[in-house]
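Posting for a labmate who doesn't have an account.
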Amino acid sequence: MKLTRQQVLLVLLGLMGAIRVGEYVLVSMIEEPLQQRRNRIQQLSGDIRKRQATLSEMRKSGQQMQTWEEQSLPADPEVARTVYRSWLLSLVRSASLQNAVVDSGSPTVRRGRSRAILLRSLPFSLRARGTLNQFTQVVHRISRAGFLHHVTGFTLNPVGTSGQFDLSLSIETLLLPSRSGNSLNEGTSGRPALPSVADYATITTDNVFGIGLNPADPMAHTLVTGITFSNGQPLVWITEELTKRVSRTPPGEAFTTVAMNGRILEVRDQEVVVESGDRRLLLPIGKPFKEARVVSE
């Protein structure tokens, strides 16, 4: 049977239509769903990676939160105030700083969106007098302590050329409500970079203030040289050998020296009881302040 030209064209058109229909079926029913499936798999794989990264961060945050809880001061502000103040005073005593005064302010509360307490901050201030070496010891121990605290302000003023400095430190501490216990963390922070205070000796040897400082210890050259009476009232004579300054102070009055500031509490036969900061000291006549004995805190 011989096909006419018209019939051949119709057959060709039919074949082309069948091919187009096949392509449509292949694309719409097979390739498109397959591509969508591939895209979905790729999206899910990305979501899995993100969730794994989030889970890893949450685990790290949980570990960090546990560390922060350990380093936090006790959750109760009054307990935290007491134990941290005692710790600061222990630093002052171990470094033999003088005229030490430790104060604390009111706690500040920080809340989340739900108004739940996230943390409290409790500020402290420390004022004292001593040498650069003594101050370096104190600041180094503050930096090494494993607490949630940091120094927010620092001033250091030389007292003439005596080798003594007036120190003022401002410290902020943090209290987490989830912290348990009433004692301070006994661990270390890992700061500063050099673990030994001896590694920072250059601070005390360099003349950072550009003035001539007398290296002699004023505590070893300030002493009670005598007790006299005027109209039945005792007067305590305090001599500063480095400056040749002599002061006469009655009981109940304050005295000021480069070595130490204080107040005369009691005059005895051969000794004087003075108050300096939080301490009461016994000063024998003829002995330097450096040999004073603590009689009570």
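Reply:
Got it, the structure tokens are right above this. The chain has three domains: 8-68, 77-205, 218-296.
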